[in-house]
Amino acid sequence: MLRVHNLSAGYGSLHVLRRLSLHVKPGEIVTIIGANGAGKSTLLRTITGLLRASSGEVLFKGEDIQRIPPEQVVFRGCSLVPEGRQVFAAMPVRENLLLGAYVQHKRGKRDEVAHDLDRVFGLFPVLRQREHQLAGTLSGGEQQMLAIGRALMARPTLIMLDEPSMGLAPLIVKDIFHIIAKIRDEGCTVLLVEQNARSALKIANRGYVLETGRIILEGDAGDLLANREIQRAYLGKDLDGENK
Amino acid sequence: MFLELFFQYLVAGLTYGTIYAIVGIGFNIIYNTTGIINFAQGEFVMLGGMTAVSLYAFLPLPLAILGAVIITMAVGGLIEMVFIRWLVKPSVLRMIIITIGISILVREAGLVLWGEGVRSLPYFTGNEISALSFGGVRVSPQVLWSLGVCAIVVVLLNLFFKFTMLGREMRACAANRDAATLCGIPTRNMITLSFVLSAGIGALAGCVVSPITQTQYAIGSGLAIKGFTVAILGGLGNSMAAVAAGFILGILESFSIWVMPTAYKDAISISLLLAMLFLRPSGLFGNREAFKLKDF
Ligand SMILES: Nc1ncnc2c1ncn2[C@@H]1O[C@H](COP(=O)(O)OP(=O)(O)OP(=O)(O)O)[C@@H](O)[C@H]1O
Ligand SMILES: [Mg+2]
Mean of the per-residue pLDDT values for chain B? Predict the structure, then answer.
């Protein structure tokens, strides 16, 4: 579905990604975990084309999407839920979702929008209650749900989420991860970027560990969860006690 | 007598107020979608008025105005595509210099095309001496035309931004360009559209007030400063407040003539502009809350 090959990118003279490769197969949840500043957001922004790579390629369904403008990437079926939600604060929830359906409108599938709206409201019942409330007045968790809902309105085949758990209470995080698994079960492939490594690895099929712009480790989610190095660095387990 | 004079100045103020308001709205439309303060905004008013005068030589008045608006819109779109579109994240200073450059370019083109002569369209109804009398206050029908057109523009713009898909897309692009892109919206086209739209509105205003204020190749830069003052006064990005601010400035200027030499008239807007920028850069009607939920 998605294949990133030897990708390098950065900001001006600052190199953030260094010859990074990864792939995502249809129907998977793949997670990328890494600390602050590892380059996770940069990676996702480069895949969508918001940021131009300095070298390497990004193949989506076999097509190199590095040379096409970011809005066209969305049309191809690859949607990003950006870091920090980025909802349209001054617009009601409903309008936010309808803007997400822009792609469907242009595809000539206008009549499916109402159905998609119902589906999103089904996944996030709280959004239905807040339908006419301004998005800027929603709670953080609700805004995250709205951001995911807005991306789903484009009917993506691959949805990429940038730290959906950021700043949310554990209970809400559980909710959101549960829904991410559900989205995958409904047939949408998921690329999930997280600092909350434990929750992410629990729902993921595979995972990559990103450190200073390089993939340092990859494998099945279960293996990564059991990996001592990862437990120490990302899962916050104190292994020293165990070793004695 | 005093009261009559008072209302006469008030009406004059309202007339100039409409054009300031519309130039202010033009500023805001472009500012909202791009973050650019387009100092060439006043040139659209000039282009609209001058083109209409030229077309009026062989077309009936309504068609001449329509033609002028369409031509100016095309010029607005072209300006965006040639000068703005290819810039990658330009700095504010660079944008200001570029738009001032564009404004000079358009003005010089106007000079070459039309010369220095002062022209004007005929009065839409009646002529320069016909007047409606409201309790002793004489009001030219053209003033009502200006007010009416301003009102219609404001209402239509609001409907457009609130209720059409395209308007919603432009607002999305204004609120958060990256997020709009991630919805698949071609934000570059929205920016071109915002230039087209504000060029059209400016041109229309240029036509409607032309009989009263007259049109010349050089009126643009003065109007740009007035429109900028109005946009700042109302709070940058807030089109409805710009209308109110436009009328405030028009009326202030008008009454200043009553008590001060006419030459000081233009100093009013500059002083107002500086005072606002120092004291309340968020505008008269701007508050923090609204600023957070920035919208049209
Ligand atoms: N717009 C930018 N301009 C310059 N440098 C940037 C920009 N955005 C990010 N960086 C730098 O790129 C590096 C990677 O940032 P990135 O946002 O991709 O990290 P991240 O892994 O998403 O971190 P976090 O978990 O905090 O979101 C950082 O060193 C950051 O300072
Ligand atoms: Mg990040």
Answer: 86
Do A198 and A235 form a contact (C-beta atoms < 8 A)? yes
Q: Pick from B197, B276, B261, B266: which is nearest to B226 by CA?
A: B266
- Name beta bridge partners: A20: A7
Nearest to B160 by CA among B197, B195, B205: B197
CA–CA distance, A211 with A207 (Å, rounded to integer): 13
Q: How far off is chain A from B257, nearest CA to CA, in Å?
A: 41
Contact A90 B172 (CB under 8 A): no
Q: How far is B194 from chain A (nearest CA, A)?
A: 18
Residues with CB under 5 A from ligand 2 (ion): A 40-41, 83
For the stretch B111-148, pLDDT in tens is 999 988 888 888 888 777 777 877 777 788 888 888 89
**Both structure tokens of B212:** 């009263």
CATH T-level fold of B2-121+136-293: ABC transporter involved in vitamin B12 uptake, BtuC (1.10.3470)
Which among A168-182, B31-45, B83-97, B135-149 has the top mean pLDDT? A168-182
Q: What is the per-residue pLDDT across B236-273, written as a single tens digit (0 to 9) for each?
A: 877 788 888 899 999 988 888 888 887 777 788 788 88
Spell out a b/e string for B197-232, using b for 16 or more CB atoms within 10 Å of the CB, else e: bbbbbbbbbbbbbbbbbebbbebbbebbbbbbbbbb
- Any idea which residue has 């008008």 for tokens? B254
> How many residue pairs bridge chain A and chain B with CB atoms within 8 Å of each other?
73
Atom of ligand 1 nearest to the CA of A42: 18
- Sequential DSSP letters for A39-66: SHHHHHHHHHTSS--SEEEEEETTEE-T
Tokens matching residue B156: 């239509």
Q: Specify whether the CB–CB gap between B99 and B40 falls below 8 A.
A: yes
